[in-house]
Design a protein that fits this description.
This protein is α+β, with helices and mostly antiparallel strands. It contains 13 helices and 13 strands. The strands form four sheets. Strands 7, 8, 9, 10 and 11 form a five-stranded antiparallel beta sheet that branches. It has a four-stranded antiparallel beta sheet with strand order 1-2-4-3. Strands 5-12 form a two-stranded antiparallel ribbon.
Length: 437
């Protein structure tokens, strides 16, 4: 056995098995195949080696012999070199001839290695995104938009902002069969919206458009088309006004006559703005906290030396591909359909997944090392408190949540999530965080 260190977490063993053992394995393989192969003119196990070889082929004999040789030789090589593999080796046969030694190579993955750099006392800047009046008004406008009504229009022409039901024929396709579509005037190609504006119900018109070079439909880019359009129905959007009455009817619960509403009830426009601001500021604080955690982990990774076998990446990539295939199957699609749609190859997809996998592995490995060094643990009381919080949020009994977690892999996932959170809370608490504008 000779060995070569390919990387900190992978070693290649070159293993040579003496000719006598190779010959013994080949002879035994011939005998076994002779016993299970029906050869005319011979009883099971009685055919000569030459006859057996003609019937089953020399490659099948060598394949069976290799199975007998390599596993014991590999195990013996691991003992001789004192190597503890992290995962099964990648094995390649180098030389395998009758009456000669057999040589094969085994790339052996080793356990990941982490040399933690500085992970306490890190200098981190924390930026909280500002909440502006414009952001609050935009949120309120979104609420008004969602409660808008579509009123039918029969007494005027099409205007910008209207929603129209049209019959459309692309005459350049050579078809006269109209396709019914719903369009919002202002969201289409400028020539189309301009041509549609001013049309009346039941009016027909041909509008010429040229699709831009960056159009989302590749087959239409740069193409001109004559679109025959007929306006079938027309609607205008009616939005509610922001008034105290609208706020009260939308957000305030009904109260009995003569009973004063609680002080925290949102029943005026000013209270709605205050409530939205508080919610957006809490969300901004959460974003800032997540950003701090990400910056801390990035710095710890930069300060550390992290190595892991490539097989760990491959396993994660395989899992991601399998998950994607399952998700697509539920939508009656295949991975090939998906790749064609996004314009990628399987190699492109696996490379993207591999990049994400490497990042995730580095994060997990440094967190686990911090957990070990700091003796961070998840106690039963932590589990109980989290289950109680989950039950409260879902408005179900604690016993139901616990029973579900115990019947699935949920309990171990919950323990891992809490362990990760404790480790992140530790490094955040051990960092020097400066709030900046």
């Amino acid at each position: 056995v000779t060995q070569e260190q390919l990387s900190p977490c992978e070693v290649e063993l070159r293993i040579e098995v003496e000719a006598e053992k190779v010959k013994a394995a080949l002879d035994e393989s011939y005998k076994e195949l002779a016993r299970v192969t029906k050869i005319p003119g011979f009883r099971p196990g009685k055919a000569p080696k030459e006859v057996v070889e003609r019937y089953v082929g020399p490659e099948r004999v060598k394949e069976r012999a290799a199975d007998k040789i390599m596993q014991p030789a590999y195990s013996e090589a691991l003992k001789e070199t004192n190597i503890e593999p992290w995962a099964p080796a990648d094995v390649d046969v180098v030389e395998f001839e009758i009456d000669a030694p057999m040589v094969f190579k085994a790339k052996v993955p080793l356990a990941p290695k982490v040399e933690l750099g500085d992970y306490v006392g890190l200098e981190i800047e924390r930026t909280v995104p500002p909440v502006t009046d414009d952001m609050i008004e935009a949120e309120i406008q979104g609420m008004l938009d969602r409660q808008g009504k579509f009123n039918p229009v029969t007494d005027r022409e099409v205007r910008a902002g209207d929603t129209a039901v049209i019959d459309l024929v692309d005459q350049s396709e050579g078809s006269e069969e109209p396709k019914r579509q719903v369009v919002h005037v202002g969201d289409n190609l400028p020539e189309f919206d301009s041509g549609l504006t001013g049309m009346k119900l039941e009016e027909e018109k041909t509008i010429t458009v040229t699709y831009p070079d960056d159009h989302q439909a590749e087959e239409l880019r740069g193409r001109s088309a004559d679109l025959k359009v007929k306006v079938v129905e027309l609607f205008e959007r009616e939005l509610p006004e922001l008034t105290d009455e609208w706020v009260k009817s939308t957000f305030a619960p009904e109260t009995e006559e003569g009973v004063e509403a609680p002080a925290d009830v949102v029943d005026t426009a000013d209270k709605l703005r205050t409530k939205i601001r508080e919610a957006m500021e809490r969300a901004a604080q959460d974003v800032a906290d997540r950003d701090v955690r990400d910056k801390i982990i990035e710095k710890i990774i930069e300060n550390s030396k992290i190595d892991f076998p490539e097989v760990m990446v491959t396993e994660r990539v395989d899992e991601r591909v399998e998950q994607l295939a399952e998700e697509l199957k539920n939508r009656k699609l295949t991975v090939d359909d998906y790749l064609k749609h996004v314009g990628k190859t399987m190699e492109d997809l696996r490379n993207e997944f591999a990049e994400d996998a490497r990042t995730g592995l580095k994060v997990n490995l440094v967190i686990y090392d911090i957990v070990e060094k700091e003796g961070i643990k998840v106690e039963d009381a932590d589990i109980d408190a989290e289950i109680a919080a989950m039950a409260e949020a879902r408005k179900v009994p604690v016993e139901s949540i616990r029973a579900y977690l115990e019947s699935t892999d949920g309990m171990s996932q919950l323990r891992y999530r809490l362990l990760r959170k404790k480790a992140l809370d530790f490094v955040v608490g051990a960092s020097n965080i400066k709030n900046v504008a």
